[in-house]
Amino acid sequence: MTRETGTKGGRWQLMVLLLTGLLGACREEQPPLVGSSSQVRFSQEAVAFPATYVGVSRQGELRVVSTGRSPIRVTWNAPQEPFWVEGLPERVGPSEEPLVKVRFTPSGPGAFSATLVGTDEGGRTVTLRLSGEGRPVPPCPTPVACRRFTFDAVREQCVEEVLEEGTACDPGNACVLDAVCQQGHCKGRERVCDDGNACTTDVCSPLDGCQAVPAPPCPGDGACQEGWCDPRQGCQLRPAPNGTFCGEARGCDLAEVCVEGACVKRNPPDGFVCAPASPCQGEGRCQGSTCVRPEATALVPDWTYDAAAEDRKLHDLLVGPTGDVTLAGFFEKPVLDAAGDSPVHAQVTGRRCMLWNERLLCMDLPQQGQVSLMERATGAPRWTFNLARARPDIAERSSTIFLARLAVMAPDRLAALFEAYPVGQDSRTLCRLYYLVVLDAAGGMVSAQAMEDPLLSECNHPHPFGLASDTAGDLYVTFSPTVNSGAPLSAGAPTLVMAFSSDGVPRWRRTLLFPGGELGLVRGLLIPEGGAEPLRTSDGEPVGTLPLKLGRAVATREVLVPSPEGATVNPDGVPPASPRLQGYAVPGLTPAWTYQLPAGASFTSKELRLGTWPEGGVRRTMVLGFAAEGARPALVGVRTGDGSEAFRCELGYTPRTVPQLFELGPGTLTLMDGATTCGECDPPFADSRARFQRFTLPGLEPAKEPWPGTFGGPGHDHHEDAVHAAP
User: What DSSP string describes 240-293?
Assistant: First the structure.
């Protein structure tokens, strides 16, 4: 028993030793369990952050969970930027669930990923996958004075903020000094200009600062006391030259004339001036009892530019205050001072140019969606404004942006009306978007807004056929559907009239039943080209009805003169006979006078201009128009004071068409004819190759009047002037 028992015990000991050796060998050869799943894990396997903008943080939360029975220590390998992790525990117990915060803050656009790795004391790992997308921050609109835009990532939009009171700002006006922000507007003190000369008018140009220009003539006192200016004392009086007319009698047997400062009746001597000169006829002088005048001569051009011969699409002209002539066309290179010795051809194309602050302002120059101010003499740009760059939010809604109209609101305010196709559509669409932008004298954006109305939402190519402002700087625009596609555009009905304050705030709107057209303004009256009812600028209500369409009316502050009665172009391009002009008192619109051409003569053009002509030492304001008397047109001057004829001068050239457009300069008249497309469309005469001619007429000057129209007139400035010339 003892032997057997001992033998069995020895065998068990041997087996234990063998098993122990094998287990020891296994421990030496088996590698550690690195990489195996830990008893520690995250409450979720991955965190995918929503797309976020560069520099903006997104945050998330999750918990660390342990499935073990005792606490476990963990060493963490934190991820690199743009991911951050806060709250990782060094030790995790079975009843603990520490809260961990993860954050994603992209430093640039693109996709990002990383892995958070933790290793416990047994060499086992726990992982968390992190991912996110960085988006570029959208550009915000260009800030206007006293406001700024910041991007709100939560609302995902640019937010406008008013700058703090007293913040220094740029008013965009050289005539405003020490400007600071006041209730969201840039205001300062007015710059005072004084050159010490009482015979000049000291003015301040928003672009150029102080300037001195000749002062208006000093007024006289009575019939024979004329005014003159002393540089130190200002206006003075002195006797008018002997022989100056001072009464109604102007015959060669009896005339009322000034003698030593008094108005007396005299029997004038031979050679006495008994009739004033006209542009085509010298003054009359007495020979006995007869007033003898030289024969009238035809007016002939001293300069001609034929765009058809040059194969250039030029069909618009501007005449500057010094007489320089600019020719322009629909996406053509303007010709600056074309009538000068060395014309300047602009290097880039534009369309629809006008004069503003002594410079040339062009739409879509040098490319669509831009407005540029250029020096008249050289074509060098002073500034350029691009709506898409200034307002990227507008650009995102529009596939193409271009200019529709421009209008002066004040020397330091310009209205630019932009047109666009809705995003995803091209030029074949008849849907349109419109944006009204107000710019300062330096081209800085004052405000911008989308124009909205049910009429504008219809896809019939609504178009602004008229845009003008009044003496207060308030703005008026007429929209109408178009009856054709492709320029030039013809207006249909109805017409939407919209009014805005000088800072772009909507005031009122009306819908009228006639087709749209240009706009005019005079003394609180809005003059729509296509209608017969002037509207009050205060509320848009009609003010009486005239017996004829207003057309391209002109106005002094005393009288409104519509286009010649019936002078609208027929479909065959020939205007009907229009033998008369009618003047209406302003603002009551009662008939003031009627001018009638001689039998057989008729007005041939709807275009009128206001000019002044010297008569008996006084400059009289005239309505100028063109009439047909035989084969050649005649320039007709009618006094605005009483409707009497001042002169009628034949033009000595062979017409291609009726005179289609003309402008006045100092001692000149520049005329356009030969255009082949519609003049009542927009843009007028687009793509025509017209002929331009200048006539030298010493003594004829543009009138300083509130010319009310938006196309034509001094510089096409689209702004009612408050200056009043003699009737």
Answer: PPTT-EEEEEE-SS-EEEEETTEEEEE-PPTT-EEE--BTTBPPEEEETTEEE-
Q: Where are the beta strands (DSSP E) in 616-703?
A: 618-629, 632-639, 645-650, 661-665, 668-673, 691-696, 701-702
Rounded to whole angstroms, what are the CA distances from 436 to 37, 68, 448, 529, 559? Answer: 65, 70, 6, 22, 32
* Alpha-carbon gap, residue 221 to 226, rounded angstroms: 6
* Residues of the chain below pLDDT 50: 1-35, 567-575, 709-711, 724-727
Q: Give residue 214's pLDDT.
A: 83
pLDDT in tens, 535-589: 999 999 999 889 888 988 999 889 999 998 654 444 444 445 588 999 999 989 9
- The pair phi, psi for residue 674, each rounded to 5°, is 85, 0
The pair phi, psi for residue 12, each rounded to 5°, is -65, -40
Cis peptide bond N-terminal to 683, omega within 30: yes
The pLDDT value recorded for residue 577 is 59
As a whole number of angstroms, the longest Cα–Cα distance in the chain is 185
Model pLDDT, residue 722:
65
With CA atoms as reference, report the closest residue to 41 among 127, 151, 124: 127
Q: Do 54 and 107 meet the contact criterion of CB atoms below 8 Å apart?
A: yes
Residue 88 DSSP code: -
Residues 6 or more apart in contact with residue 168 via CB below 8 angstroms: 179, 180, 181
- Give me the amino acid identity at 675: A
Phi, psi for 619 (deg, rounded to 5): -85, 120
Sequence-ordered strand ranges (E) for 142-232: 147-152, 157-162, 176-182, 185-190, 200-205, 209-214, 225-230
Phi and psi at 17, nearest 5°, equal -65, -40
CB 471 within 8 A of CB 715: no
Q: What does the DSSP assignment read for 442-461?
A: TS-EEEEEE---HHHHSSS-
pLDDT of residue 249: 80
Angstrom distance (rounded) from CA 293 to CA 282: 7
> For residue 446, what are the CA distances in angstroms to 56, 437, 439, 599?
30, 7, 5, 55
Q: How many CA atoms lie within 13 A of 450 on its CB side?
A: 15
Find out whether 275 and 293 touch, Cβ atoms under 8 Å. yes
Closest-CA residue to 207 (of 506, 440, 556, 485): 440
| Secondary structure of 42-67 as H, E, C letters | ECCCEEECCCEECCCCEEEEEEEEEC
pLDDT value of position 15: 39
Neighbouring residues of 155: CB distance < 8 A, sequence distance ≥ 6: none
What pLDDT, on the 0 to 100 scale, is given for residue 139?
83
Q: Is the distance from CB of 117 to CB of 76 less than 8 angstroms?
A: yes
pLDDT of residue 244: 80
Q: What is the pLDDT of residue 721?
A: 77
Q: Would you state the structure tokens that stand for residue 268, as one six-digit string?
A: 């004038």
Name the 3-class secondary structure at 716. helix
Query: Cα separation of 608 and 712, whole Å?
Result: 9
Read off the tokens for 40.
């520690």
- 381-413 burial, b if ≥16 CB within 10 A, otherwise e? bbbbbbbbebbeebbeebebbbbbbbbbbbbbb
Distance CA 292, CA 275 (A): 9
135 has which bridge partners? Answer: 53
The pLDDT, as a whole number, for residue 565 is 67
> Residue 693's Cα: distance from chain center in Å?
30
- Please give the order of strands across the beta sheet that includes 554-555: 554-555, 559-561, 580-585, 591-596
DSSP string, 548-596: S---S-EE-SSEEEPSSTT----TTS-PPP--EEEEEETTT--EEEEEE
